Amino acid sequence: MGVAPVPAEHAPGVTLGWGRTPVRATVNGVSWDTSVWREKSGRVLLAVPKNIRGNNDHDDTVHVQLQYSIEYRD
To answer: With 0-12 CB in 10 A as exposed, 13-18 as middle and 19+ as buried, what is 25?
Structure first.
C-alpha cells in the first residue's frame, strides 16, 4: 500500500476518532470510500491500495481528488 500526503490546504480541519476522516478518494479516475488520517506530526495521509495505484510508484505524480463525506457543524 502506498501513501500520499495531503497538502495542508486540502486537509480536513477536524478529524474523527483515531485522527481519521472519512473521504471518497479518486486517484487517476478510480474512486473508493476510505479515510485520511492525521499523524502525530500533524501531516495528513491517504493510503492508496496497490489495485488503485496500478504501476504508479512513490515518485510518480498522480491526480488525487478527495470528497469529505461528513459535514462539520458548529
So the answer is: buried
Predicted confidence pLDDT, tens digits, the chain (74 residues): 688 888 888 888 767 777 788 899 998 889 999 999 988 888 899 998 888 888 877 777 778 889 886 655 54
Strands 30-38 and 2-6: unpaired
Report the relative pairing of strands 30-38 and 20-27 from DSSP bridges. antiparallel
Do 68 and 12 contact (CB within 8 A), yes or no?
Answer: yes
| Residue ranges per structural domain of the chain | 2-68
Provide the CB-side half-sphere exposure for 71 (13 A, CA).
2
Phi then psi for residue 69, to 5 deg, are -100, 20
